[in-house]
Design brief:
The complex is a heterodimer of chains A (281) and B (318). With 281 residues, chain A is an alpha/beta fold. Chain A is built from 4 helices and 11 strands; from the N terminus they run H-E-H-E-E-E-E-E-E-E-E-E-H-E-H. At the A-B interface, loops of A face helix 8 of B.
Chain lengths: 281, 318
């Protein structure tokens, strides 16, 4: 019963609708084991130990290497000046770290990160935070397309407008957009939550498998198999808390956000693993 | 992949040659095969600027008599230009095969689109000859290599003007040659040029239709279709913005393109929004490019930029 209660709660909070029952229900990860939270080659850093450098005349590789060297030296707070919209900065950081960019980033910024808290005092290009696994990344201005593509965890926030295909293939975590999001946002979403406080472009949530999208403004059109749903009080509370943590508010209160989920009409898979299927069939 | 860029100074001239060179060099990783510029200078005395080539760059490495042949072709172009009283005011050659002429039409013939077309067709009837652009402000330069190489070769660094578009090309569906390089002049309309990033999937349908209406295609590149398409629609009397709006619904595929006219810069993005475009706009300047890094190559300080949305069409004037 305790498990059932937990499952209802997760559904009420818009976590997911999928009823899993096979091997995927098994626990592969134990939060009790502290080793699970630290990568083997991660560095011991002190958040009070601050360092900064100017990236204006550096190559992408030099900037990323410099971040690694500073972490290795124990710096837990790194500030990068003049990133000048260069691509692929701050990628692959699997460490606790406070990372700040005093300017804009180009494509693929901060992809594949697991753990750092990132703040970008500017704009980011396409695919910021792609495959992010944990941590927090906040963009103060606008973002390009495919913001948060395939993220698995953490909070990814853009306080301005974002381009198209936001959170394409999202597998977990929370994406928050302070302004408008373009066409095909939430395309093929699988898990997690997306909160768009402004308007959403055409084909929102197209072919989504699971997960939940909340929209504060106008939705140009819903995609295939994306359907409206009722927002629960538990969800509204969670949304208020989540948004306020990033200094944001739903335009008419969290309870009045539009909630979009998968209609399940496209679900043509079952919960069995291939090996289990052979046994059953 | 390809990279495109555009800029317009609203209310003044600037060194657009060096600005566009910086922008396109920053996009070199999107396409190293060829680079092209459509630069809009200050019109002088109603004269027309004519940019043309009489051979491909790679032709120059083939054949014993190619050097004499290009001289013969160029002499024939001169004869045909002057045959109806048009005067060649100045001439320059940045390369052995590409030329820049300032011409003066007799009796205001330049106002007549039919006569412009007749002259262009007459010149292009010469083997190897191709008009790259014809216009009062437009000068179109394209060649193999990156932006700095082409800019140095054609001495574009000091080019002064109001607006420009440019392209770095990664050849995917047609050859690596000047003919397939962007920008494309919207023949026979003076001062209209197009650059494009994407793929058109109904290229042949539209090309056959446009050819039936008398338009000429110099390449098999789908980007040329956009220039000819816009020229065709504008010939029917509709405005640039309206023609661009139509293109978003009529052209299939994924695309982002820039178009420039004598006094405007326009941008269109398809409804799938699958091709990138970043925009910066201030009171005196507009910059658009496939990537922000191109715009930041001329603005070192932080600026506010954003992505235009799906199906969006925008036009700015000088």
């Amino acid at each position: 019963m305790a498990n059932l209660g937990g499952q209802h709660k997760s559904h009420d909070m818009g976590l997911h609708q999928e009823q899993l029952s096979g091997r995927t229900q098994q626990i592969f990860f134990s939060p009790e084991e502290s080793d699970n939270f630290v990568y083997p080659e991660s560095f011991e850093v002190d958040f009070a130990n601050r360092a900064e450098f100017d990236a204006g005349e550096m190559t992408i590789g030099q900037v990323n290497l410099k971040i690694r060297e500073l972490m290795q030296a124990g710096h837990g707070h790194i500030v990068i000046k003049n990133p000048l919209a260069k691509h692929s900065l701050g990628v692959g950081i699997l460490n606790r770290l406070n990372l700040e960019f005093e300017g804009s980033l180009g494509y693929f910024g901060c992809g594949l990160i697991d753990g750092p808290n990132v703040r970008v005092h500017g704009r980011v290009g396409w695919s910021f935070g792609e495959n992010m696994m944990a941590g927090t990344a906040v963009v103060e201005k606008n973002a390009g397309s495919t913001f948060g593509a395939a993220i698995r965890g953490g909070d990814l926030v853009c306080k301005g407008d974002v381009g198209s295909r936001t959170g394409i293939d999202q597998k977990g975590g929370t994406i928050i957009v302070g302004g408008r999001s373009g066409a095909f946002s939430g395309f093929m979403m699988q898990r997690g939550r997306m909160i768009i406080l402004g308007d959403a472009g055409i084909n929102l949530g197209d072919s989504m498998y699971d997960g939940t999208i909340y929209v504060g403004g106008k939705i140009d059109s819903l995609g295939v198999d994306a359907v409206p749903a009722e927002i629960t009080d538990l969800e509204a509370d969670w949304l208020e808390r989540k948004l306020s943590a990033h200094g944001l508010k739903a335009p008419n209160g969290a309870k009045n956000l539009q909630k979009i989920v998968a209609g399940k009409k496209l679900w043509n898979y079952d919960n069995l693993e291939p090996t289990e299927k052979k046994i059953v069939l | 992949m390809c990279g495109i860029a555009g800029l317009i100074h609203r209310g003044g001239n600037a060194e657009i040659g060096s600005e566009m060179t910086s922008m396109l060099q920053a996009l070199k990783h999107r396409g190293p095969d060829s680079t092209g510029f459509a630069l809009y200078g200050v019109p002088q005395n109603g004269d027309y600027m004519l940019r043309f080539k009489v051979a491909e760059q790679e032709d120059m490495a083939h054949g014993f008599d190619i050097h004499d042949e290009v001289k013969r072709r160029k002499a024939e172009v001169d004869l045909r230009i002057q045959s109806d009283g048009t005067k060649i005011v100045t001439e320059e050659n940045a390369t052995e095969y590409a030329f820049r002429y300032r011409v003066q039409f007799a009796n205001g013939a330049s106002e007549d689109q039919t006569k412009l077309k007749r002259l262009a067709d007459y010149i292009e009837d010469i083997e190897g000859a191709e008009i790259l652009s014809m216009g009062r402000g437009l000068e179109l330069v394209k060649d193999l290599g990156d932006a700095i190489r082409v800019s140095d070769q054609y001495q574009l660094g000091t080019f002064n003007g109001t607006h420009a578009i440019g392209h770095t090309r990664m050849a995917t569906e047609s050859d690596v040659d000047i003919r397939s390089a962007h920008p494309y002049w919207a023949y026979p309309f003076s001062d209209i040029a197009v650059v494009h990033n994407g793929q058109l999937t109904n290229y042949w349908t539209f090309r056959r239709e446009l050819e039936r209406r008398g338009h000429r295609f110099m390449s098999n590149c789908d980007s040329e279709l956009i220039a000819v398409y816009l020229a065709d629609r504008m010939a029917s009397g509709i405005a640039l913005k309206e023609a661009m709006d139509l293109s978003v619904s009529e052209l299939d595929g994924v695309f982002t393109y820039l178009v420039a006219t004598a006094d405007s810069l326009g941008m269109a993005k398809d409804t799938m929004a699958a091709k990138p475009m970043v925009l910066y706009e201030s009171e005196s300047f507009v910059g658009v490019a496939s990537e922000e890094v191109a715009i930041r190559s001329i603005f070192r300080d932080e600026i506010d930029t954003w992505d235009p949305y799906e199906g969006e069409v925008m036009v700015w004037q000088i």
